[in-house]
Amino acid sequence: MILAAAFGAACSAPAPASLNAEINCKPEAQRLRARCTVALTERGTGRRVDGAAVTLHADMPSMPLSHHVRPVEARPVGEGLYQGSLELEMAGRWVISARVTKPVSDQFTRVLDVD
Fold first, then answer.
1. Using CA atoms, how far apart are residues 45 and 62, in angstroms rounded to an integer?
2. Rounded CA gap, 115 and 103, in Å?
């Protein structure tokens, strides 16, 4: 039994060396709320990455440290896609960050203009 578990772990696919991410955010019905989708792919192969841990963050560069938007876990929705909704505090330009901590650590950003 132990040998089978060790053999299974040895045969699992290695973690990707690095990732690419595409972040798309769309407004929701509630004002100042955005649903963001992160598509993770393995750099080099383009394969979608499942089983990642992704957290969404929002910062307003024109007013650093003035806003406290709660980070949101982006939940997996299949095929390397992760989604979460951010509640922004005001209209303006925001920088949306997708922080990945599993299978590798990385961070990706996108500018979002909110009316």
1. 37
2. 35
